[in-house]
Amino acid sequence: MSSDSIDFVLTTGGTGGHIMPCKAIFEELALKGYSVKVFGGEEIIRYDFSKDKHTIIPSSKIPYSIKGASTIICSTFKAINILIRHRPKAVLAFGSYASFPTCLAALILFIPLILHEQNVLAGQVNRIMSRFAKKIIISFPDTKGFSTKVLKKSTVIGNPIRQCIIHARDKTYVPSLNNDEFRLFVVGGSGGANFFTRSIYAVIQKLNPELQKRLKLVQQCKESDIENLRAIYENMNINYEISPFFSDISDRLANAHLIISRAGASTIAELVVVNRPSILIPFPYDKDNHQIFNAEYLQDLGMARVVMEDDFNVDRFVELLSSLMSNSKLLEDMISLDHDNIVKNFIYAKDRIVCLLEDISH
């Protein structure tokens, strides 16, 4: 192999739901000694890919404006030039509009293209590219959005998750009984912090005083909201912790009696693996309502209650939260069913995806 050649190119962008699985596979391939580069939008810089291991390929959302079409064309040529220089054995794409130019470049150059779909409902770019991809990796057996013909070349592997989440599964769920402390973890993610900041404190305010006394609230919020939210919770005299970021997210999930969250693909995988009950409020502004399908999937497993943001009502939410805090059996029932096959998909996804890449590239 020449010094400029690499083994694999991964392409991703958009939100953490696309980028985190890519990062997991990037790290796994690197551990195995493969040379890997990541192509994608500027947002990948925030995820600690070393400077010499990522290349920014601008893109635009689909359908295109004239300016967007121009960006796509220029970026596709940029990707073609770089792929010609590096000659990777395969390109693995994790969806989002940011992956489109690199996917198109791979097809033009007859480089094997593999798609990874994290959501229950396939995203637009993966749907477009699915007809031409060599292989499609899906995270759920009943993934929607692909044609029957396309599904014949798909394989259910799962969404790769971080090792710390896998380790957190070992922590036993201990119910909060009677007057025990009740640990509530509210995590907004990239698209949820604003809504949760506006809504959750209003719910806590209306909780029965006895439930407020039991509450240990851990909440993610934006840096700019910390002072206002702190003043509100101090006035309520509740036990709370707020932060824009939690580096020990796996411990927070494992320690929680109940989690309130959005319903991104990575969140769903982590909740299933850690096995914790949740109330999910899907992000309502995705073009294809991916999070609604994700949330309903977890609800169908019995592990979550789903509340739509458009239907959010403080009094009804207080009623829901109060019923779960007051009845530990309800929460235990939500995580009592056997989902071992689904869990194994997520736990072993990294290894299986790497094996698939190795098979295709040989």
Strand neighbour order, sheet with most strands: 3-2-1-4-5-6-7
CATH class of the largest domain: Alpha Beta
Distance between the termini: 14 Å
Which shape, going by the Cα principal axes? elongated
Return Rg in Å. 22 Å
Q: Any overview of this molecule?
A:
The protein is an alpha/beta fold and 362 residues long. The protein folds into 2 domains: 8-160, Glycogen Phosphorylase B (Rossmann fold, 3-Layer(aba) Sandwich); 166-339, 3-Layer(aba) Sandwich (Rossmann fold). 45% of the residues lie in helices and 15% in strands. It has helices at 16-31, 66-86, 100-108, 124-130, 148-151, 163-168, 193-206, 209-214, 226-236, 249-255, 265-274, 290-300, 314-326, 328-334, 340-347, 349-361, and strands at residues 8-12, 36-40, 54-56, 90-93, 113-117, 135-138, 154-156, 182-187, 215-220, 239-243, 258-261, 278-280, 304-306. A 7-stranded parallel sheet has the order 3-2-1-4-5-6-7, with helices on both faces. A 6-stranded parallel sheet has the order 10-9-8-11-12-13, with helices on both faces. Helix 12 links the parallel strand 12 and strand 13. The protein is elongated, with a radius of gyration of 22 Å.
Notable characteristics:
Rossmann fold, 45% helix, 362 residues, alpha/beta, elongated
Show the helix and strand layout.
Elements: E1 8-12, H1 16-31, E2 36-40, E3 54-56, H2 66-86, E4 90-93, H3 100-108, E5 113-117, H4 124-130, E6 135-138, H5 148-151, E7 154-156, H6 163-168, E8 182-187, H7 193-206, H8 209-214, E9 215-220, H9 226-236, E10 239-243, H10 249-255, E11 258-261, H11 265-274, E12 278-280, H12 290-300, E13 304-306, H13 314-326, H14 328-334, H15 340-347, H16 349-361
Parallel strand pairs: 1-2, 1-4, 2-3, 4-5, 5-6, 6-7, 8-9, 8-11, 9-10, 11-12, 12-13
